[in-house]
Amino acid sequence: MEKLMKTSKTVDTILKVVYKILQVGGIIIFVGVGICLIAGALGQLPPAELTSVSFGDVELIFAEPQIVDNSFMTIEMGTTLVMALLAIAVTCYLIKVLRKVLVPMIAGQPFDGTVSTNIKKLGITIIVSGIIIDLIEVIGSNLAFYMYDISELFLSENIGKVMINGEIGLGNVLVGVLVIMLSYVFRYGEQLQQQADETL
Amino acid sequence: MPIILRLDRVMADRKMSLNELSEKVGIANVNLSKIKTGKVSAIRFSTLEAICEALSCQPGDILEYQKEE
Q: Which stretches of A42-156 are DSSP H helices?
């Protein structure tokens, strides 16, 4: 039990620091990219030179820098901003819930009545946030693909068709399901703890 | 709960305080006090044995069954 309490306290301290960093980072990203987005919408952004473009795990590196217009950069920044803020918000929420799980563990009560509920919340958040972030990534990639006219980059005699196949990964779903199942184990532990506490 | 612990009755008969009983039985005061607040749902045989020895009584003197209506 001593090791559990010590480890929980250490992890809690680390999470506290990470939470603060994410909060500050989120504000900086929001302000910085937000300003660029507004500038883009007002047509104030200078044309950009792209040396490469990424679609999910695929990166296309250009032989020569390609000049792209305002609208492409605005959409790119817009989707980047949304994804970054969503990722930060979800991570902050996960950290908050995880710290709630750690509070009774620091006190030496891993089977406190609130632990299983919070672990279940973690699992559901992992599943939902994973799907949403993947969806935004797919939408952003497709928008960039159509905005930029990617098929122009390839030698047309060798390429029949160019398209983006977006996918929603099941990794997060699997992790989320495992975490939810873990919450049931803790709920059983809570019931046993209650029986032990009520036994004279 | 249909099973009631009549510990206070037997303690009063033997003129024994909660502190004294908890010392003899080896259970913390707070755990014995849980009986009064109805927070006890089970009792170990070893604890029952220790209580009976301390109060010189039978388990039936401490435990009573009252049917729930």
A: 70-106, 115-148
Tokens coding B14: 């033997």
Residues of A in contact with B41 (CB under 8 A): 195, 198-199
What is the CATH T-level fold of the domain B3-65, as seen in this structure?
A: 434 Repressor (Amino-terminal Domain) (1.10.260)
Residue A54 is predicted with a pLDDT of 67
Judged by CB atoms closer than 8 Å, whether chains meet at A198 and B43 is answered as: no
Q: What is the pTM of this model?
A: 0.72
| Closest CA in chain B for residue A198 | B40
**Is the residue at A82 inside a domain?**
yes
Question: CB B31 to CB A195 under 8 A?
Answer: no
pLDDT below 70 — which residues of chain A?
Answer: 44-47, 53-57, 68-72, 144-166
Read off the tokens for B25: 């039985």
Domain that holds residue A153: 2-46+74-197
Q: Which residues of chain B have pLDDT under 50?
A: none
Let me know if residue A61 belongs to a domain. Answer: no
**Interface residue ranges in chain B relative to chain A, Cβ cutoff 8 Å:** 5, 27, 31-32, 34-35, 39-44, 47
Residues 6+ apart with CB under 8 A from A43: A70
Structural domain total, chain A: 1
Note whether A110 and A92 are within 8 A (CB). Answer: no
Give the closest residue to A73 by CA, choosing from A143, A154, A139.
A143
